[in-house]
Design goal:
single chain; mainly alpha; 6 helices; two-stranded antiparallel ribbon; about 10% strand; about 120 residues
Length: about 120
């Protein structure tokens, strides 16, 4: 932050900047929710091409990329609590995810899991 012109005090306590109304306005202007949703859905449906000398190329799910996107989304929505943030047990806790991606949506989008127990 110092390289960008912020004071040493601001650099040591970035939440004084990131928890302001003007920061929220900047985030909404440059990273609107619609864009974040679009990119998140692309990441949750990430695929990779598996090549072989003996078989045709296959498009398969890229579970590593999907997991990183899911973790990032859960953190952004405040639904994933890291070990360092969970002082009581020292374990990772995931809050309940909304029912938005229940069975009805998974039938129309086979890339989405059948239930949250598959995650």
């Amino acid at each position: 932050m110092i390289e960008e012109g912020y004071s040493k005090v601001s650099a040591l306590t970035p939440n004084k900047v990131t928890e302001t109304k003007s920061w929220e306005m900047l985030m909404e202007e440059y990273l609107p929710d619609e864009l974040l949703n679009k990119v998140a859905l692309e990441g949750l449906n990430a695929t990779q091409i598996k090549t072989s000398f003996t078989e045709p190329d296959k498009k398969v799910p890229d579970y590593g990329v999907r997991q990183r996107y899911l973790e990032t989304i859960l953190k952004m929505k405040g639904k994933l609590v890291e070990k360092s943030e969970n002082k009581q047990t020292g374990e990772i806790t995931i809050k309940v995810i909304s029912e938005k991606y229940g069975e009805s949506d998974s039938a129309s989008n086979p890339e989405l899991p059948e239930s949250t127990t598959d995650l």
